[in-house]
Write a structure and sequence with these properties.
Shape: globular
CATH class: Alpha Beta
Strand content: 15-25%
Distance between the termini: 32 Å
Helix content: 25-40%
CATH superfamily: Aldolase class I
Largest sheet: 8 strands, parallel, barrel
Radius of gyration: 18 Å
């Protein structure tokens, strides 16, 4: 059990193009970054897409299909399609790619929260595109909605398409949501939880919080698969702690634009290589995509629609 799943979150919907020249925008750039992450040792690529003209997060399923087909033609990395989407997207827009592409794995956010990015305006003053400032500013009065009704509807779509949900948990109460939905049959075992730390509106990225979250989940669910991702400067510290505790990890430009203090990451692959170096210092190895599929019980690349 010295294998760990390493996920690369390729572009996300948090950072805007003006924040880094290395943030992938077009389908070709996103696909290339996913393949580079695989070459560096990643097990999973977590996929958002963007309008190739403006870099704005997009729900366009044709863009997801283009990225997925290009990645699949070049490597066997597991693709985890987002249903978090971008800020302000409808539930129908967020789950459309699962229904149409039937991926092996997709994210499923498991509770509502104040998902705040407006404080980035204290740091970033100049923007390439008009939408960037507006997008960040609107989060001062924004709730990221994931109600029981929409979670049930989304989970049903996941299971209809044999897509394993990766449950995104931003705070302690969301574990109660998982427990409730599991007890009512809306979720099925095995479950895979990702603790998302350091988002303003969610739990702070501290060692104490991670231990508490993990222990609470362990008490509720017994055996389960889990991973950690953390925003910004907390990324590598919290991921290292997850490795020590027996968990899996997520790095990537969605969560953090830097490789170390003051040094921008030029690619997702650089962050993947760094967390794998740390893992190997701890006597751990990255799981191959084939091993990741076995660990998570995924249906395999032959059963997707891309």
């Amino acid at each position: 059990m010295n294998k760990r799943i390493v996920t690369a979150a390729i572009t996300g919907a948090i950072h805007t193009p003006s924040m880094s020249p290395y943030l992938p925008i077009t389908p070709d750039q996103i696909a290339d970054e996913a393949v580079r992450a695989w070459e560096a040792g990643a097990t999973v690529a977590h996929i958002h897409v963007r309008d190739p003209e403006t870099g704005r997060p997009s729900p366009d399923v044709s863009l997801y299909r283009e990225v997925a087909e290009k990645v699949k033609s070049r490597c066997d990395i597991i693709l985890c399609i987002t249903t978090g989407g971008g800020l302000g997207m409808t539930t129908q827009q967020r789950v459309a790619a699962v229904a149409q592409l039937k991926p092996e794995l997709a994210s499923l956010n498991f509770g509502s929260l104040n998902f705040a990015l407006f404080h980035a305006l204290e740091v970033y003053k100049e923007f390439k595109y008009p939408w960037e400032r507006e997008y960040l500013a609107m989060t001062d009065d924004f709730i990221f909605p994931n109600t029981f009704k929409t979670m049930k509807e989304a989970a049903e779509i996941f299971y209809q398409n044999q897509t394993q949900p990766e449950l995104e948990v931003y705070d302690l109460g969301m574990l109660n949501n998982v427990d409730f939905m599991l007890s009512r049959g809306h979720l099925r075992r095995p479950i895979y939880i990702q603790f998302v730390m350091g988002i303003l509106g969610g739990m702070a990225a501290t060692p104490e919080n991670l231990v508490y979250m993990y222990k609470t989940a362990k008490d509720l669910f017994g055996e389960f698969n889990w991973s950690v991702c953390a925003a910004g400067k907390y990324q590598f510290n919290m991921c290292t702690m997850a490795l020590i505790l027996g968990g899996n990890v997520r790095v990537g430009l969605e969560d953090n634009l830097y490789l170390e203090r003051g040094v921008r990451a030029k690619s997702n692959a650089e962050q993947v290589a760094k967390i794998i170096r740390i893992a190997r210092e701890l006597g751990l190895e990255p799981a191959t995509p084939a091993e990741g599929r076995e660990i998570l019980g995924l249906k395999g690349l032959d059963n997707v629609l891309f």
